[in-house]
Amino acid sequence: MKLDGFGIFVKDMPTMVNFYRDVLGFEIQEDENTTNVYLVKDGTLFLLYRRTDFETMTESKFQYANGINGHFEIALSVENYNAVDDAYKKALSKGATSVIKPTTEPWGQRTCYISDPEGNLIEIGSFSK
User: Fold this and answer.
1) Using CA atoms, how far apart are residues 24 and 48, in angstroms rounded to an integer?
2) What is the reported pTM?
3) Which of 21, 84, 86, 99 could make an S-S bridge to 113, C-beta 3.0–4.6 Å?
4) What is the C-alpha separation between 54 and 9, in angstroms, rounded?
């Protein structure tokens, strides 16, 4: 099997589309009220799929985490340490929630964490000074 991509089951599609497009700069072509959003970012398929539509399709109900959750992270890299700080400040100014301020870790990575509006963790980091 080959990894094709990943998806997030979302509660509020318009809010999540706006966040990934306007805050993180993902190129999203679909309408904010669509059932699912497909995009390819750096060769990886990224999918937002409305929870209620997935439950209808599977004829099942699921449990979803509330608040900031630690089930997974989306890792984004930038060119250098300064870009980590800049991306963090820019994301916060556009409504992202801070989880960890930019920090240089003992293994040499400068990293920070924010969350999207539904509490999914997003890491922004770089190994280049």
Assistant:
1) 14
2) 0.92
3) 99
4) 8
Over 90: is that where the pLDDT of 2 sits?
no
- Token reading at 121: 């963790």
Whether the CB-CB separation of 93 and 44 falls below 8 Å is answered with no
User: Do 80 and 127 contact (CB within 8 A), yes or no?
Assistant: no
Alpha carbon distance 52, 107 (integer Å): 41
Both tokens of residue 44?
């990886």
Residue with tokens 């929870």: 51
pLDDT value of position 27: 86
pLDDT at 29 over 90: no
Q: Is the pLDDT of residue 4 over 90?
A: no
**Distance of alpha carbon 31 from alpha carbon 39, whole angstroms:** 12
* Token pair of 20 as six digits: 């990934």
SS3 10: strand
